[in-house]
Amino acid sequence: MKVSDYPFTQEAAEAVRSRNISLDSLLDKSLFQTVRSRAAERLRGAIAEVIPEGRASSESEQLFELLSYPLARVMVSCLNDPILLRRYALAEAKLAFRRMQHEKEGLVVLANDLGINPQGQGPWKIHFSEYIRPAHRMHSPKWKLTNRDLSEGYLTVTDVELRRLLEEAIREKVLKGLPVSVDERICQGLEEYLAPVKRDLEALAAKQKIDLGEVKEGAFPPCIKKMLSEVSKGINLAHSARFALVSFLLQINMTPDEVIALFATSPDFDQDRTRYQVEHIAGATGTRYKPPACATMATYGNCPGEDDLCRRIRHPLSYYERRSIMLKPGAISSAKEGQT
Questions:
Q1: What's this model's pTM, rounded to 2 decimal places?
Q2: CA distances (Å), 140 to each of 95, 150, 155, 168, 242, in order?
Q3: Which of 92, 169, 211, 243 sees the fewest Cβ atoms within 10 Å?
Q4: Is residue 122 within 8 Å of 159, Cβ to Cβ?
Q5: How far is residue 244's CA from residue 227's CA, in Å, rounded to a whole number?
């Protein structure tokens, strides 16, 4: 297992420390220009959803690949963009996942570093407490503990499933430590490399800007506004919140394609899976689902707080209908005339 292939591991961190290379050296010395370029390439690849493989054949190339990871984390932290942070963590995990396909004995070493201790030669036995940590964010029913062959605290996973669990563990590990605290002087010194990344982010934001067409966004209740804000920032919604948002938007006559497009900023966006879920809620199987009432939204923690209109209604759709009427030209004056 090449340590440069998995720069987030403890072994990698120790290898970097043993070189005793200062951050100032990485920023200033011409010798490390390749490291700076590769670090920026990691970020730009994350925005494009794929970090390209780096050249790591010779010993010096492996060192540069290894050093580019901590420097990339510095660059990500300088920008401190929530969408970039999540895309970067996911892209690093996917890069590691591709490299894992060539691992045999090294797979167990990597798993141990991530706090997972598979037993056997494959299929693997994993303790449920180690399994739950990476699996709890996976949406497919097959990952639920109730659907696994749990026996005496252990369950079985295949080679493919072990790699997928490690991918998720890597994503969480990379994201957990970001952003790091970075002196503004360092960020200014990296501006040459950060500028193209900023342009890529701006282009991504323009491409994925939420367009609700004829829908009256100003009539949305606070809960829907909050969910849309989080989606636009690339934050993964809880299942209950995602269902509430999708069912609401479909009920106010947005098309499934329009709703699917809203989730494109999610760091783990899967178009096929999202389409299946949206079309299912839209009634593809015969039942068209309606959004939950306000009481249910509050029960699941999806109510961010009431405004004056919320206190007089019991359902997000009722809020939207009332607010839409209020937003019509002349509606306020008509209401006042009706009171006189």
A1: 0.69
A2: 22, 18, 17, 14, 15
A3: 211
A4: yes
A5: 9
